[in-house]
C-alpha cells in the first residue's frame, strides 16, 4: 500500500484528493495545522480512513519529523494562503506560507528521502497580466498580486529542486477549479450561495466587485485526478490543467441565477471595496499537454458546474431551514 502525504487536506482540493487516493488504495496522511477549534468539515466523512498529523508549513522541523515518521512515497503540497485579496492585506504572511513553505517542504524531502515524489500546487494566477492567449506551460509569468508572486516563487523552486537534486518534483499549473466545497469567499461559491439564499427568501442582495474579469473555471474533482496522474509518469514535468473555455463573472451570475429562475441584475450591488489593487483580467488555459501525456480531460462543463453548485447550496439551506423549524417547534 503506497503512502501519500497531503498538506492542506482540510481545504477544497485536499478533501477531494484524499478521497481519490483512498479509492486507489493509498494510506493517506493528512497534515493539519494546530487550531483552537477543529476545522474538518470537508473531510469529516473520511476522517476515520485517513491519518491526521499536526504540522505547519511555517515550521521546518515539523515537516522533517512527519516525513521521517510516515515515510511517504508521494507528497502533495496543497497548503497555502490561497485567497488573493488576503494576499494584498497580508503579503508577508502569504509569502511565508505560499512561497517559502514550498522550500521548507522540498528541503525536508531532500534531507529525509529524495526519492519522494512531490506535487506543487501552482496556479494560473502566475500568468496575471497575460502575455499570450491561451496560456501554456511556456507562457511567461506576470503575477498581479502577492499571492501570484508567491506562487511564481513556489513554481521555480520546485523546478530548481528537480534540476539540482534530481527530485521527482512536478508543478501543476491549475486554472480556477470550484465545487460545493469551495470557500465561500471565492466568487463562484459566493454567487451560488447567494442565489440559493435569495431563492429561499433568506437574503435579498449580493455585493460583488469586478464583474468583467474572465476565468477558466473547471470542477475540482476533475483537477485532483490530474495531480495524481502527474506523479505516476516516467519523468517529472510541469502541466497546465484547464478547460480551455473562458467566462466572465457576469456569465457565471447569469448561469447560476437563471438556474433558479432569478434575474441576477435585480439583486447584485457593485461594491468598490471588493475591487483589487491590480486585477487579472483574463485567464484561459491550453491543457493539450496534459491531454496528450496524462490522458486528462475535464468532465464537467461551465454550466453544469454552476448548476451543481447552486443545487448543493439550495439543498444545504433547505436542510438548515428544516432543522431550524424542527428545533423551534
Ligand atoms: P483552500 O481550500 O484555501 O485550502 C488551503 C489549505 O491550506 C487548507 O487546508 C489550509 O488549512 C491549509 N494551510 C494554509 N496555511 C497553512 C500552513 N501554514 N500550514 C499548513 N496548512 C496550511 O485551497 P484549495 O482551493 O483547496 O487549493 C489548494 C491549493 O491549490 C492551494 O495551494 C491553492 O493556492 C492552489 N490552487 C488552487 C486553485 C483553485 O482554483 N482552487 C487553482 C490553482 C492553485 P486550514 O483549513 O487550517 O485553513
Ligand atoms: O474567485 P476569486 O477570488 O478567484 P481568483 O482570484 O481567480 O483566485 C482563485 O483562483 C486561482 C487560480 O487562478 C487560485 F490560484 C487562487 O488560489 C484562487 O483559488 O476571484 C475571481 C474573479 C476575480 O477577478 C475577482 O476580482 O472574481 C472577481 N470578483 C468580483 N467580485 C470577486 C468578487 N472575487 C471575490 N472573491 N469576491 C467578490 O466579491
What would you say this structure looks like, in words?
The chain has helices at residues 12-23, 60-70, 84-89, 91-112, 146-165, 187-199, 220-230, 249-259, 288-294, 302-328; strands at 3-7, 27-32, 51-54, 74-77, 117-123, 169-174, 177-178, 206-208, 214-215, 218-219, 239-241, 247-248, 268-270. By secondary structure, it is α/β, with parallel strands linked by helices. It folds into two domains: 3-178 and 217-241, 3-Layer(aba) Sandwich (Rossmann fold), CATH 3.40.50; 187-215 and 245-282 and 301-328, UDP-galactose 4-epimerase, domain 1. The strands form four sheets. A seven-stranded parallel beta sheet has the order 3-2-1-4-5-6-11, sandwiched between helices. A two-stranded parallel sheet has the order 7-10. Helix 4 packs parallel to helix 5 (146-165), helix 6 (187-199) packs parallel to helix 8 and helix 8 (249-259) packs across helix 10 (302-328). The longest helix is centred in the last third of the chain and has 27 residues, at 302-328. It is globular, with a radius of gyration of 20 Å. 45% of the residues are buried. The mean pLDDT is 98. It binds NADP nicotinamide-adenine-dinucleotide phosphate and ligand G4F. NADP nicotinamide-adenine-dinucleotide phosphate (NAP) binds at residues 7-8, 10-14, 33, 35, 39, 56-58, 78-82, 97, 121, 123, 174, 176-177, 183.
Amino acid at each position: 500500500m503506497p503512502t501519500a502525504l497531503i498538506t492542506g487536506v482540510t481545504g477544497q482540493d485536499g478533501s477531494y484528493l484524499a478521497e481519490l487516493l483512498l479509492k486507489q488504495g493509498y494510506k493517506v496522511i493528512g497534515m493539519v495545522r494546530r487550531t483552537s477549534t477543529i476545522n474538518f468539515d470537508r473531510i469529516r466523512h473520511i476522517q476515520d480512513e485517513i491519518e491526521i498529523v499536526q504540522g505547519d508549513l511555517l515550521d521546518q522541523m515539523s515537516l522533517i519529523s512527519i516525513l521521517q515518521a510516515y515515510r511517504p512515497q508521494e507528497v502533495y503540497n496543497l497548503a497555502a494562503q490561497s485567497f488573493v485579496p488576503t494576499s494584498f492585506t497580508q503579503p508577508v504572511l502569504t509569502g511565508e506560507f505560499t512561497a517559502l513553505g514550498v522550500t521548507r517542504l522540498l528541503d525536508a524531502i531532500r534531507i529525509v528521502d529524495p526519492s519522494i515524489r512531490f506535487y506543487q500546487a501552482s496556479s494560473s494566477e502566475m500568468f496575471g497580466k497575460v502575455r499570450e492567449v491561451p496560456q501554456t506551460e511556456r507562457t511567461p509569468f506576470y503575477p498581479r498580486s502577492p499571492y501570484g508572486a508567491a506562487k511564481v516563487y513556489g513554481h521555480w523552486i520546485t523546478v530548481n529542486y528537480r534540476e539540482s537534486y534530481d527530485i521527482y518534483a512536478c508543478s501543476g499549473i491549475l486554472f480556477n477549479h470550484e465545487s460545493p466545497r469551495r470557500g465561500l469567499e471565492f466568487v463562484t461559491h459566493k454567487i451560488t450561495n447567494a442565489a440559493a439564499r435569495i431563492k429561499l427568501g433568506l437574503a435579498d442582495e449580493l455585493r460583488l466587485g469586478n464583474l468583467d474579469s474572465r476565468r477558466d473555471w473547471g470542477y475540482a474533482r476533475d483537477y485532483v485526478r490530474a495531480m495524481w496522474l502527474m506523479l505516476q509518469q516516467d519523468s517529472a514535468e510541469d502541466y497546465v490543467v484547464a478547460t480551455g473555455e473562458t467566462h466572465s463573472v457576469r456569465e457565471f451570475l447569469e448561469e447560476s441565477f437563471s438556474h433558479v429562475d432569478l434575474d441576477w441584475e435585480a439583486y447584485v450591488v457593485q461594491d468598490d471595496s471588493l475591487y483589487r489593487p491590480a486585477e487579472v483580467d483574463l485567464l484561459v488555459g491550453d491543457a493539450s499537454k496534459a491531454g496528450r501525456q496524462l490522458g486528462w480531460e475535464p468532465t464537467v462543463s461551465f454550466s453544469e458546474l454552476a448548476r451543481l453548485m447552486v443545487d448543493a447550496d439550495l439543498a444545504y439551506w433547505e436542510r438548515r431551514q428544516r432543522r431550524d423549524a424542527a428545533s423551534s417547534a
